[in-house]
Amino acid sequence: MATDPTSAINRVSENNNSLVVCFGEMLIDFVPTVAGVSLAEAPAFKKAPGGAPANVAVGISRLGGTSAFIGKVGDDEFGYMLSNILKENNVNNSGVRFDPNARTALAFVTLRADGEREFLFYRNPSADMLLREVELDIALLKQGRIFHYGSISLIEEPCKSTHLAALSIAKKAGCFLSYDPNLRLALWPSPEAARKGIMSIWDQADLIKVSEDEITFLTGGDDPYSDEVVLKKLFHPNLKLLVVTEGSEGCRYYTKEFRGRVPGVKVKPVDTTGAGDAFVSGILNGLASDLSLCQDEKRLREALLFANACGALTVTERGAIPALPTKDAVLQFLSKVAT
């Protein structure tokens, strides 16, 4: 099926109710200045703002959408830096809280020679884990058309209860619920706890985005390429859209009515940090202006091709937020690919 990468995106209206509220962690990634070395061998590190939900919020704003971030950072230099980065990128940061007793989270991210990552986290506990329910910006939550979240905020209390409360408020307000589990096994007490925690809110989401590795993990080792596995074990009756990302190979999509594949866009990877978040930004930016995308396969494929291109462009630079593309950059890239 032919896909026109521009038409779905250019249909984005200036609808006031297209706000995407992202909930969860924001942190500092320290990325080695050279690829293909271990943390111990790295000669130096470049600091880059990160944290999947924050990346998605910035990604949406870069694409011309409207986004907000709710989360907690330390009452420290890094925390204020991160809050300012949201503001500089036109993300509503009124839901950001500052903890006087805990530091902003840090993650050292090693880039292997192939651009894939390994993580070392400093969170003992970090401020993002300490967001309390009374600190939630309820008015902001209720304003969102889409509420987007991950699973890292489900690992520890009080953030876990706060996440569940925010989810409940957003659902009652009629928000479309978007879930990217974003598995970081090293942060969970055990693989069993991770599986249980991630699946505990699975059946609430309208949209779920998972990677092949996450399918293997969540299903206990089943084939991530099997439609039967995905439909039987991961699709649930409330889901409007399930997307399986396959890195440079593109993505698969599943709805109640149809399913298929959209090929990836090949680039030379420098750093895969933030590629999945850029993909999520791309698809949520389309959905924020028109939730009926999920019912129209042609337009959904166009939006997914656009999202694939968002992910591809992001891996051509180091760091997540610095590498997130603008709408013009994505459309230009897709028109080059098409010729």
Can you put this structure into words, describing what you see?
This protein has 339 residues and is α/β, with parallel strands linked by helices. Helix 9 (275-289) runs antiparallel to helix 10 (297-314). Strands 5-4-1-8-9-10-11-12-13 form a 9-stranded mixed beta sheet, with helices on both faces. A hairpin with a 4-residue loop joins strand 11 and strand 12. Helix content is 34%, strand content 22%. It has a single domain (51-101, 126-338), classed as 3-Layer(aba) Sandwich (UDP-N-acetylmuramoyl-L-alanine:D-glutamate ligase), CATH 3.40.1190. The protein has 11 helices and 13 strands. The protein has helices at residues 7-10, 52-62, 77-88, 138-143, 159-172, 191-199, 212-218, 227-234, 275-289, 297-314, 327-338, and strands at 19-23, 27-32, 45-50, 66-74, 92-99, 106-111, 117-122, 146-149, 176-179, 207-211, 241-245, 250-254, 259-263. One of its GO terms (cellular component) is cytosol. Keywords: ATP-binding, Carbohydrate metabolism, Kinase, Nucleotide-binding, Transferase.
